[in-house]
Amino acid sequence: MTKFHFAGHYNGDPKTLKSHEHEPNYVPFKEIQDMTKLAIFMNGLSLLIAVITMGLYFYLARQPMNMLGTFATLICLIPHEFLHGICFEGDVYMYENLKKGMLFVTGPGTFSKGGFIFMSMLPNLVFGFLPFIIFLFDHTQTFLGTLGALSIAAGVGDYYNVFNALFQMPKGSRTYLHESHSFWYMPEQ
Question: 21 — phi, psi (to 5°)?
Fold first, then answer.
């Protein structure tokens, strides 16, 4: 059973994060290591996705974005992390650094490749893709269209994790979070 802990303010030191200890023969995900370069890449990708989803919204709705939907996107940041967290086994820790726009969960658990992809995508499906698909079929649902368009763009970090898992984890491997990075390993038979 998952047990949530609010771990407080993240000061930028990955050694302070509650995470999984390294497994034998671990392999780090090939990720952008420089946090500034990673932030620039993620923000650029998020902006590109937002241009696409919001452009589609404006084309179909033919009206401004729904302000309540915009506000709901911000409110959904905490439930977004909660949905990630319920996929962990055991303890999960939520951290924030609002000055840097950071809110995230981590924990000592491990995931199968499919479990990690599901954990990464669950909040994006609930708050992003599902509302946006409903809007695509009913253009009057501007609240859902706005919530979906903005939430899809905000999930870019999760899509990066999914991409890395899909293309780097071999069949049968497991993944875990250690400090601020992801690793995979082959469990002993």
Answer: -75, 155
Q: Which two tokens stand for residue 100?
A: 């840097």
Report the predicted TM-score, pTM, of the whole model to 2 decimal places.
0.92
Q: What is the 3-state secondary structure of the chain?
A: CCEEEEEEECCCCHHHCCCCCCCCCCEECCCCCCHHHHHHHHHHHHHHHHHHHHHHHHHHHCCCCCHHHHHHHHHCHHHHHHHHHCCCCCEEEEEEEHHHCEEEEECCCEEEHHHHHHHHHHHHHHHHHHHHHHHHHCCCCHHHHHHHHHHHHHCHHHHHHHHHHHHHCCCCCEEEEECCEEEEECCCC
pLDDT attached to residue 151: 97
Question: What's the CA gap between 18 and 94, in Å, rounded?
Answer: 10
The list of the chain residues with pLDDT below 50 reads none
Tokens of 179: 């400090």
Residue with tokens 């392999």: 27
HSE-up of residue 54 (Cα within 13 Å, Cβ side): 15
Domain residue ranges of the chain, discontinuous segments joined by +: 33-184
Give residue-wise pLDDT tens across range 143-163.
999 999 999 999 999 999 999
pLDDT of residue 88: 93
